[in-house]
Predict the structure.
Amino acid sequence: MIDSSRGYYRGIFFMFAMMLVSCANDVIVKFMGQRLDTLQVLFCRFFFSLLTLLPFVVAKGTQVFRTKQIGFNIARGILGATSFFLYIYSVMTLPLVEVVTILWTIPLFAIILSTLLLNEIVSPMQLLATLAGFFGLSAITLYDSNSTFSLKLAYLAPIASSLLFALQDVMIKRIVNRESRTTMLLYFALVTSGLTLVPALMVWVPLTSRECCLLFILGIGGNAIQYLIFKAFCATSLSALAPFRYLEFLFSAFFAFLFFGEIPGVNVFLGAAILVPCTLYLATNEREKGNSNEKNTLRHHLKRSKG
């Protein structure tokens, strides 16, 4: 039985924890948006994330600043600041469940970008699943809760955010084995905090003690999400965890109803019903591709050892 070991259940635990932290962060962002500007919330998110990294930086010493990929880290920080601005703006202005569901398109964009930037080969079935996934996206963004056609430009923000998140995933895929994870997190926090400081100051309003506490929790949560994802994927495979990833829809729907009285419309359920199987197929296909590559590498080494 695949992934039936203890690592499988540890992976599920970390994935559940990540989804809860992610939903809690979304609730904090939506609350902050009732009084604060998107740019101020964005800067505080990055700045407090940087503060929570400092103990790890001190523990590792100056070596954590050493990098041969400074251009990559700066580019990733620029993309990160832009994508998170669009994401936070979306959470503040659109129904929470819709934003979470739209972000399921990240694997769809990743397929396209991997083909264009990494020269990866896409099978006809992968292409069909990607096109069907975008059809599911249109059900959410082009129709309202009453199934009436309604074109809203505001949906361009979470869609663009998904595209930029996917681009970052592709970039990380090319560099992750050549750079320390702590170094990547540190430079990401430094670049994003620096980029958003001046814009945030232009719209800054004094923070209450309650807001400071919530924004600090938001910063901790940002780092915790990355840590929990890393632990989950180290414990078991991506395809084994993929089905549980969609429970975030239920978590976000619960929190959105509990705190903001939001109820998902029929268009959201229809879009989710199309997106889930499409992205699940792409995740499973990626796992099979990875297994095939590992077998080919093993055969190559065996042939060399016999020769």
Q: What stands out?
A: Residues 293-307 have pLDDT under 50 and may be disordered. The two ends are 35 Å apart (CA to CA).
